[in-house]
Design brief:
The chain has 273 residues and is an all-beta fold. The protein has no helices and 24 strands.
């Protein structure tokens, strides 16, 4: 499903799944993008890209962006029916078609500056980066609403360990508040948050972390995502404690799991061989 041997994700959205709600979402394998409208029980092919897909995000009611290897992207505005080329200027997460928050990278591809757009990426305004030099190896940005969002900043990985910090904003990235700590074990691969503070962080060589209070407190679910065995490949969080996560086992198999009670219990919706 994805290369579990990689030490940490590239900037952007290196996800295997992207969902608009608990029933409608996308799944990618290689250069093939498939759509589900029944909560992940069945999928049908809706897009073949010229090169391997490196990431996805879904936002609004029906919009999604698919990133392609060697640059470039394709966007849908109608839930996957039609696709058009889309130009990325920054590694940004969009809350709506017009409002996004992201960052650029500098020397050695380290996180450098944060920017916000309110016109769909035509122009970008600088924002203060929450990622210190020590935590600038990569970042996972998730903008739940035009004003409310989170950034998970991570440092250099090694021997299964990686420094991490979670920050939240309530003003579109103008100011940031540091939240609770995550364990050093594992390499952060992505994060998803709902506007009410329910959130997920998934990892390679680590586990699945769950928060119910915006990141002040975290629960490691090693019974769901077993360290060194299960590798997080994407997730989604929605208000009311509803969420989805993709867990793979190297390049051999994968499964889509769902929760409707703030991550207390999970059930498997789909298995891939």
């Amino acid at each position: 499903m994805f290369l579990a041997a990689l030490p940490a994700p590239p900037a952007g959205h290196p996800a295997v799944i992207a969902f608009w709600d608990m029933r409608r979402g996308l799944y990618v394998h290689g250069s093939r993008v498939s759509l589900t409208t029944d909560g992940g029980r069945t999928f049908r092919l809706v897009l073949r890209t010229p090169r391997q897909v490196t990431g996805m995000q879904a936002f609004g009611e029906r919009a999604a962006i698919v990133d392609i290897a060697s640059g470039g992207a394709i966007r849908t505005l109608d839930g996957g029916r039609t696709w058009r080329p889309f130009r990325h200027r920054l590694d940004a997460d969009f809350a709506t078609l017009r409002v996004g928050l992201g960052f650029d990278t500098g020397r050695f591809e380290l996180v450098r500056r944060f920017f916000a757009t309110r016109d769909g990426g035509v122009s970008w305004q600088p924002r203060r980066s929450p990622c210190s030099r020590r935590l600038s190896f990569s970042a996972a940005v998730d903008l739940a609403t035009p004003r409310v969002g989170w950034a998970t900043c991570v440092g250099q990985p090694g021997t299964g360990q990686q420094p991490k910090a979670v920050f939240s904003t309530s003003d579109g990235g103008r100011t940031w508040r540091r939240r609770g700590k995550l364990d050093w074990s594992g390499y952060v691969w992505g994060a998803a948050f709902a506007s009410d503070g329910f959130g997920l962080v998934w990892e390679s060589r680590g586990t699945l972390y769950i928060t119910r209070d915006g990141g002040d407190h975290w629960t490691a679910r090693t019974d769901i995502a077993e360290p060194e065995i299960d590798f997080g490949g994407g997730g989604a969080a929605f208000p009311g404690g509803r969420g989805l996560v993709f867990l793979g086992r190297g390049d051999r198999s994968g499964r889509l799991l769902a929760t409707r009670d703030f991550g207390r219990t999970w059930r498997i919706l789909h298995r891939w061989p």
